[in-house]
């Protein structure tokens, strides 16, 4: 892998971590009810979930060796969520987003950080 390819791979992983950080920034101090009432925060969170899904999709497409070496990273489910948010926005349920924030983001962050550490 060339230096440029390694750098771009690194950038996608950083994009995922940045989006996770922003979601936590927006949601960590909120209750589900407060989040459900704030459309602007919902939109910001949805956008960052789209970033996560798209960045992981780009990694799986552009870096198949990295993709196959990291089955612990939920590439497909992140992209599926991204597609639901982007294309089936009217069907997106708040509880799914809430549960994903509370249950899935920290493990994803740890997995992405570990993969990023392997590159350095």
Describe this structure in words.
The protein is an all-alpha fold and 120 residues long. It has one domain (3-119). 82% of the residues lie in helices and 0% in strands. It has 7 helices and no strands. It has helices at 3-27, 32-37, 39-62, 64-69, 75-87, 94-103, 105-119. Helix 3 packs across helix 5 (75-87). The chain starts with a helix and ends with a helix. The mean pLDDT is 89.
Cα shape: elongated
- Over all CA atoms, what is the radius of gyration? 15 Å
Summarize model confidence as the mean pLDDT: 89
Q: Count every helix, treating DSSP H or I runs of 4 or more residues as helices.
A: 7
Mind summarizing the main beta sheet? none
H/E element sequence? HHHHHHH
First-to-last CA distance? 13 Å
The computed structural class is: mainly alpha
Which properties best describe this structure?
about 120 residues, mainly alpha
Summarize the structure.
This protein has 120 residues and is mainly α.
Topology (elements, then pairings):
Elements: H1 3-27, H2 32-37, H3 39-62, H4 64-69, H5 75-87, H6 94-103, H7 105-119
Helix pairs in contact: 1-3, 1-7, 3-5
């Amino acid at each position: 892998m060339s230096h440029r390819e390694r750098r771009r791979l690194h950038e996608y992983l950083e994009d995922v971590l940045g989006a996770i950080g922003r979601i936590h920034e927006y949601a960590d101090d909120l209750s589900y009810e407060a989040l459900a009432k704030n459309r602007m925060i919902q939109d910001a969170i949805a956008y960052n979930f789209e970033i996560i899904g798209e960045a992981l999709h780009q990694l799986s497409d552009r870096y198949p060796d990295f993709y196959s070496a990291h089955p612990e990273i939920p590439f497909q489910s992140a992209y599926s969520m991204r597609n639901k948010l982007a294309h089936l926005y009217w069907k997106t349920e708040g509880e799914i987003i809430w549960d994903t924030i509370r249950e899935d983001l920290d493990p994803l962050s740890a997995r992405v950080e570990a993969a990023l550490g392997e590159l350095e």
